[in-house]
Structures are given as structure tokens and as C-alpha cells.
């Protein structure tokens, strides 16, 4: 399956939309206005022009209040299990809504990834919703908050796609010039192993 880059972030932040934009496919990953659309770890296999393969993992979002306590615990276990044990995971793209900024959950996620020794890139999504004149101010504020560089992106209109691709391929040490390749859905059991296969599906 090759090395993997995962997309993590709050429910509805635009993970699946961005993943479709990166792969230039409209409906590879399922998206929805309703938070909680992606319910498990959903894998997509990408083949670069030179033949190298890697995977993109679309993770379910956190902070979805309408979920029951049991569902939130199951989510936490799934995510922590995935992030801490997935040997092919080369890095994580943490997404935050550019208008919302980093909150407790994002700080916790970044600290957890740091604790695990996982490499992370921070993406500020829905940048198209931020007035143009305010974009650089918003991004530098986010960068100060996070203590790491932030890439402004929009899955809706494609802003920042090239920069994000470069950063992602940097995580797995592949040449960005080989993108785009061919993206296709992987299978749930390949994604998270048999113990999690029941949860690994898109709604
Ligand atoms: N304006 C704007 N809307 C966006 C952008 N990205 C996503 N959206 C919208 O935000 C909603 C949620 O997008 P998803 O991609 O399904 O979000 P997600 O993070 O995968 O959500 P979960 O699977 O629930 O965790 C959809 O209505 C998208 O059309 C963006 O860059 N700009
Ligand atoms: Mg999703």
C-alpha cells in the first residue's frame, strides 16, 4: 500500500472536500453539510506518474456534539489506535477552519502527534470564506497560535493546493512533480486492520 498521509480535524472542517480537490476528483471521498459524514478511516490509494504509490487516509472528524458518549469513546479509540500504531503513517495534515482558529481539540491533537513523534502539517481550510484583505493576518495569527507554519487552503476553490501537495509529499519524501497520479478507493480492512474494519466506512 505504500506510505500514508492522514487528514485529521474537526467534523465539517472540510477534510473530505480537500482530499477530493487534491486528487482532482469530485466525489472520491464523501462530503456533507452535516457534521459526522466520515465515520471511519477511509483509505485512498494514489499512484504517482513514476509508479510510486502512497495512501491518503480520510479520518472521521472530532468535536461532533450530536454523537453519543459511546460513539465519542469509540471515535477516540479508533483515532488514537490508528495514530499511535499505524506503521505506514508518514505524517498527518491537521486541518482547522481559518475563521475559527485553534481550539483545545486542535492543541491536544498537535501535542498528541508531537508526543507520538508523528510529523504534522497544519492547513487552514475554507480560506475562501475569509475576506481577501484579512487572509495573511488570519494565517499569521494561526501560525503564532500553533507554533508551526500554516498553509491556507480551500477545498472549494482550490487555493493552496500546490503548496499542500508539496508539504504532503515532503512528509513521505516523494517528488511533488510526479503528482497528480491516479487515485482510487482502498479497502477498509487494509486501512485499519480487522479489529477496526467494522467502523471503517463512509456514511
Ligand atoms: N466555502 C467552503 N466550504 C467548504 C470547504 N471545504 C468544505 N466545505 C464545505 O463544508 C462542508 C463539510 O465538508 P466535508 O469535506 O464533508 O467535511 P469533513 O471535515 O470531511 O467532515 P466530517 O467527515 O464530518 O468529519 C461541506 O458542506 C463542504 O461543501 C471550503 O474550502 N470552502
Ligand atoms: Mg469527511
End-to-end distance: 24 Å
| Structural class computed from helices and strand pairing | alpha/beta
Unreliable stretches covering 5 or more consecutive residues: 187-203
CATH superfamily, called what? P-loop containing nucleotide triphosphate hydrolases
The portion of residues forming beta strands comes to 15-25%
Strand order of the largest sheet: 6-5-4-1-3-2-7
Task: Tell me how many strands there are.
Answer: 7
What spatial form do the alpha-carbon principal axes imply? globular
Q: Could you tell me the mean pLDDT? A: 80
Tally of separate helices: 6
CATH class: Alpha Beta
The CATH architecture term is 3-Layer(aba) Sandwich
CATH topology: Rossmann fold
Helix content: 25-40%
From the alpha-carbon coordinates, what is the Rg to the nearest angstrom? Answer: 16 Å
Provide the descriptors you would attach to this structure in a database record:
7 strands; 203 residues; Rossmann fold; 6 helices; binds guanosine-5'-triphosphate
Question: In words, what does this structure look like?
Answer:
By secondary structure, this protein is α/β, with parallel strands linked by helices. It has one domain (4-191): P-loop containing nucleotide triphosphate hydrolases (Rossmann fold, 3-Layer(aba) Sandwich). The protein contains 6 helices and 7 strands. It has a 7-stranded mixed sheet with strand order 6-5-4-1-3-2-7, sandwiched between helices. The longest helix has 17 residues, at 69-85. It is globular, with a radius of gyration of 16 Å. 40% of the residues are buried. Mean pLDDT is 80; it is low at 187-203. Bound molecules: guanosine-5'-triphosphate and magnesium ion (MG). Magnesium ion (MG) binds at residues 15-16, 37-38, 58. The site of guanosine-5'-triphosphate has 24 residues, from helix 1.
Amino acid at each position: 500500500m505504500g506510505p500514508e498521509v492522514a487528514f485529521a480535524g474537526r467534523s465539517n472542517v472540510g477534510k473530505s472536500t480537500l482530499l477530493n480537490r487534491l486528487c482532482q476528483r469530485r466525489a472520491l471521498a464523501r462530503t456533507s453539510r452535516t457534521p459526522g459524514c466520515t465515520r471511519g478511516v477511509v483509505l485512498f490509494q494514489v499512484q504517482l506518474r513514476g509508479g510510486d504509490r502512497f495512501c491518503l487516509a480520510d479520518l472521521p472528524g472530532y468535536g461532533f456534539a450530536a454523537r453519543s458518549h459511546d460513539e465519542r469513546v469509540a471515535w477516540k479509540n479508533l483515532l488514537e489506535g490508528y495514530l499511535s500504531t499505524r506503521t505506514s503513517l508518514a505524517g498527518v495534515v491537521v486541518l482547522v477552519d481559518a475563521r475559527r482558529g485553534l481550539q483545545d481539540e486542535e492543541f491536544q491533537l498537535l501535542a498528541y502527534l508531537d508526543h507520538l513523534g508523528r510529523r504534522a502539517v497544519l492547513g487552514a481550510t475554507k480560506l475562501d470564506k475569509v475576506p481577501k484583505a484579512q487572509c495573511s493576518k488570519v494565517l499569521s495569527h494561526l501560525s503564532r497560535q500553533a507554533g508551526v507554519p500554516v498553509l491556507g487552503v480551500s477545498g472549494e476553490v482550490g487555493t493552496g493546493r500546490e503548496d499542500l501537495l508539496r508539504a504532503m509529499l515532503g512528509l513521505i519524501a516523494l517528488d511533488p512533480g510526479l503528482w497528480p497520479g491516479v487515485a482510487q478507493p482502498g479497502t477498509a480492512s487494509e486501512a485499519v486492520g480487522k479489529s477496526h474494519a467494522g467502523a471503517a466506512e463512509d456514511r
